[in-house]
Amino acid sequence: MNGMTADCCKGTCHAPEQKSEVPVWRWGIWWFLASEIVIFGGLIACYLLYRLGHPEWGAEASHTLQWVGATNTVVLLTSSLTVILAHDAVFHFKNYRRGAAFMGLTILLGLTFLGFKSYEYAHEIGAGMVPARSLFWGFYFLMTGLHALHVIGGLVANTVVWRGLKRGHAVHRTESVGIYWHFVDVVWIFLFPLLYLANG
Amino acid sequence: MEEAIGKTKLFVGIWGILLAALAVSILLTGLGHPRVAVFLIFGIAVAKASLVMAYYMGLAHEPRYITLILAGSLFFIFVLFVGLIPDIIYVFGK
To answer: What's the rounded Cα separation, in Å, for the pair A86 and A110?
Structure first.
């Protein structure tokens, strides 16, 4: 009878409490990411619609530094691996020291990404590729800039968790910041081909 | 413990696949047919994002309603995209 006792017949029982198999903190991160999908998805959808009407944007895209974009993709993909290895080390092996080391490596890779991005911005702005030049560059700086802000936010969260791991706690936080960091990676997986590779 | 080690190997294997897919995407830009290349490159991007979401973010092990929350967001984007296509055709299709 679905967990109810005979007392139910007398009207004195309570239905068993329904507990979600997903903890609250994970609900929170997924809802947060759902809202982030709308932000980045809306931007990407608008970019694609404009791109359909502006074939000349292909020539503009050819001015982006493809090798920097590709290097940054490798950096972010690798940081996704290190952040999950940090969680793996703590959650499965209870090895906080190793977890902190992988989280530290993730932070370094995030900083490397920002370093390459800064170099790229300096090169492009120096060559006159500014938002005022065309709508393509407006989209380029808006989307990559918003993404870079998310990387910075992720780095702050990762640093807090890294400090926690060094003290031997923050297991769940390792997972939640990891999920967020992977999302930042997923966004870049789409931005890279959109802005750097689709230049034909 | 063996299961945990197996998971670690899986994560490293996925990272290898993601890097290989990135290399293929870059090589495709040299393809003689830009339109075909763009479709293939975006197909690869979707596959890469799916791998990250399923295994790194753990969506493959989450209840289905979590996936539905994210799919709901994607649905709104789809509506925006499809809803604006006639406008784009009207403005730029002349």
So the answer is: 15
Average pLDDT over residues A62-72: 94
Burial (CB count <10 Å: 0-12, 13-18, 19+), residue A197: buried
Q: Which of A91, A180, A189, A192 has the highest number of chain B CBs within 10 A, making it the mutation to test binding with B? A: A189
* ipTM, two decimals: 0.91
- Tens digit of pLDDT for each residue in B20-58? 999 999 999 887 777 788 889 999 999 999 999 999 999
What percentage of chain B has pLDDT greater than the value 70? 98
The CB density around residue A97, as the number of other CB atoms within 10 Å, is: 11
- In sequence order, which ranges of B1-94 are alpha helices (DSSP H)? 2-28, 34-51, 64-92
The answer to whether residue B48 neighbours chain A at the CB level (below 8 Å) is yes
Q: Select from B8, B44, B80 the Cβ nearest to the Cβ of A88.
A: B8
d(CA A131, CA A114): 20
* CB < 8 Å from B in window 47-106 of A: 48-50, 52-54, 58, 66, 70, 73-74, 77-78, 80-81, 84-85, 88, 92-93
Residue A44 CB neighbour total at 10 angstroms:
19
Read off the amino acid at residue A78. Answer: T
How confident is the model over A6-16, as pLDDT tens digits?
444 444 445 45
Q: How many CB atoms lie within 10 A of CB B80?
A: 16
Contact criterion met (CB below 8 Å) for A110 and A158: yes
Q: What's the CA gap between B34 and A58, in Å, rounded?
A: 10
